[in-house]
Amino acid sequence: MKALVTRKRQDGKREKVLLDNWPDPPPLAANQFKTQTLFSGVTNGTERNDLLGGNYAHKDEDLPATWGYQNVGRVIETGPDVKEIKIGDVIYSSADHVEFAVIPENWLYIKLPPEIDPKEAALFGMASVAMRTCRNADLRLGERVLVVGAGIIGQIAAQIANAMGASVTICDVDERRLDLARRIGAAECVFNSNGTGWDDHIQDFSFDAILDLAGVVGMEDRLIAAAKTRGRIMLIAGRNDVKYTFNLGQIHEITIKQNSHFDNSDLANLCRLVRRGQVRIALLIQDVLPVTEAQRLYDQLRDTPAELLGTVFVW
After folding, report:
1. Are residues 43 and 13 in contact, defined by beta-carbon separation less than 8 angstroms?
2. What is the reported pLDDT for 241?
3. The domain containing residue 55 runs over which residues?
4. Within this chain, do residues 162 and 90 fall inside the same structural domain, yes or no?
5. Domain match, 225 and 291 both
6. 266 belongs to a structural domain
7. Domain check: are 142 and 201 in the same one?
8. Residue 103 is inside which H or E element, if any?
9. Are residues 130 and 119 in the same domain?
10. Burial class (CB in 10 A: 0-12, 13-18, 19+), 27
11. Per-residue pLDDT, 25
């Protein structure tokens, strides 16, 4: 079958390419169903980490390998014990970029209602990370929330935080992304944090919750300083170490939290908000490409990632 596969080149660099001869999935177990992929979405941070051999990438000896968690496919076969899924259903699942996926009925997926555009659902993985982040931060009506980083997850987190009743501020160093945040309109304050931007807009003890989706090295003390007493900081973007001044955290009585991916309840809540128009994904999709053009896109993700936003492959 076809699959997008990370492999190592002779010059030592990694690349991700479409292969036509990847092994087919095994026959179905009794509680499994099989989908044929319609669309898959690029997980910008995770897949770039893999392309760079980062802290949670595949080891060299494990390559070539597939990786991804945003797959939208149509069910073409079901096992005898499958109860809720029928042939013809359209499914988002946390499956790789592969032509055919085999999914246990008790796994991470959601059946898409007809009102959901399956191309938009190809970004449901990153969107569900945003949902998990906002729920884990326990956002409440009227709280001030700072979203650091206006990529896909940050843009959706701002929308979810707004739907939860928070007063949202979002920042980034990329003016194009900030313009998009202004168009979406979920944040009450949008600013460029480059140069003196952070100091110009952020005062100490200002925010009930801070969602760090940028992972800029060395920002921990600034994040803590911006939080109110007993504020919450969510550290989401990939990093190797977290270092901060202990006394500063003590003064703020800070809570630092992390996510573990997302679950089916996050998918269900996301789907509900998308159906109601409270989360808008379409504006975040920058590129819709045939999967045959994937290598060019992944070269760009590896080398010039700032130019990308949401990418969906058509299978």
Report:
1. no
2. 87
3. 3-123+281-314
4. no
5. no
6. no
7. yes
8. strand 100-104
9. no
10. exposed
11. 95
Q: Which two tokens stand for residue 16?
A: 């991700």
**Co-location of 119 and 131 in the same domain:** no
User: Residue 269 domain-assigned?
Assistant: no
Query: What backbone torsions phi and psi does residue 168 show, to the nearest 5 degrees?
Result: -105, 135
Q: Is the pTM of this model over 0.85?
A: yes
Quick check: helix, strand or coil at residue 19? strand
Six token digits for residue 120 = 């938009």
* pLDDT at site 273: 98
* 201 and 85 within one domain: no
Q: Closest Cα partner for 127 from 303, 304, 282?
A: 282
A 10 A CB-CB count for 101 gives 23
Lowest mean per-residue pLDDT among 49-58, 133-142, 165-174, 287-296: 49-58
pLDDT at 70: 98
pLDDT tens-digit map of 14-36:
999 999 999 999 999 999 999 99
* Residue from 147, 137, 210 nearest 184 by CA: 147
Determine the residue type at 11.
D
In a domain, 140, yes or no: yes
264: in domain:
no
CB of 123 within 8 A of CB of 94? Answer: no
From residue 300, give the alpha-carbon distance in Å to each of 85, 252, 315. 37, 41, 20
- Strand, helix or coil for residue 63: coil
SS3 state at 119? helix
Determine the number of helices (DSSP H) and then strands (DSSP E) in the chain: 10, 15
